[in-house]
Amino acid sequence: MDKSSSLIKNSYNSLLRTLSNETSKEDKKLIKKAFDLANSSHKKIMRKSGEPYIIHPISVAKIVSKDIGLGPTAIASALLHDVVEDTDYTLNDIEKAFNPKIRKIINGLTKISGFSEQDISSQAENFRKMLLTISDDVRVILIKLADRLHNMQTLDSMPRLKQQKIGSETLYIYAPLAHRLGLYSIKTELEDLGLKYTEPEMYKDIARQLNETKKARIQYIQRFTKPLKKSLKEHKLNFSIKGRPKSIFSIRKKMKNQGITFDQVYDKFAIRIILNSELNNEKP
What we know:
There is one protein chain. The protein has 16 helices and 2 strands. It is mainly α. Helix 4 crosses helix 7 (about 100-115). The two termini are about 35 Å apart.
């Protein structure tokens, strides 16, 4: 097995590990069929990063499955999301091979991709509204957000001007859309990546300062949470306390809005206490 084949196999197996234990054999067959068609359709096509193109739809499907929690139909659609736009396959071919639901989702995704760059950049709010109304199936929008997230995660190989354009689109259109749909972790990552490519020096500077103050933040969180842990244990509560730094984008926003420096931003981290019922409901 050559290097590309091994990479594709490992990526696909990684996708399968994100599936729910309740996924039926029929649904696994649907996902495998979608992968096989996408893999053959994109064969020998490479991304700018040098990876086989199929790694992109597999990665989008993983985000759809693991981070958004959608089911087999959406996962299969994510695997197929570029097939009609980039190959000779038609929507009718997709419907014959799969079902009308997947055709409808692929059709919605293809329509979104068909909008001109001018429409997207100059009418951001109208475009966001269009995204929310273009289909009565919200999975179209969720898969599109997953697609944008993976594109942002792999934007390093693009030319600088392309990075700036895609980064701006992400900040003005896709991050607010993710927020509107309640996908807060995806919204945060989109914002940070958007800032990374629109204000690279600012992004690097804040990231550097966060790294330099990491030890002090951890120590502060430990001191702050120590009495909380003691009290919660005394009440015999099952709990978990998680601390994390605020996003680079949110720190930059506060610095800009308030006209302050990094050192003057005092709430650089957030602490979350998860109690019994929340722990029981959390995904493993």
